[in-house]
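hiii, so i know i said id send this last week but things got crazy w the move. better late than never?? heres the sequnce for the chain we talked about at the cafe, plus the structure i predicted for it. fair warning i was half asleep when i ran it
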Amino acid sequence: LEGEVLAHHFGHSKLFFFAEIEENKILRTYNAVPPPHAEGVIPNWLAEEKTTDLLVGGVGPKAIKILNDRNINVYIGVEVAKASKLVSDFTSNTLKYGENYCHH
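okay and structure toks below
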């Protein structure tokens, strides 16, 4: 996150927005500070946090591979908007995503 909105680049985000969802209902939301950026650290941290789905603007190929290997679905190219709106769109199957903002 950057403030309350999705950050452009996954690996440099200073804050992550988590939502616990069950049967398309948001049960709880909270923010968490990730560990310092280093290759593979944040994807593995997300797996340890029991993340199942990740909404992201841009993310590098190595992170995508680790996330997928850890059974995390990655939705890339998500529009920059408030995190709460994006989670609501996700639960209602109206989330828009597409081109990766990251090109490395």
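btw The beta strands are 16-22, 25-32, 53-56, 73-76. thought thatd interest u
miss u guys!!
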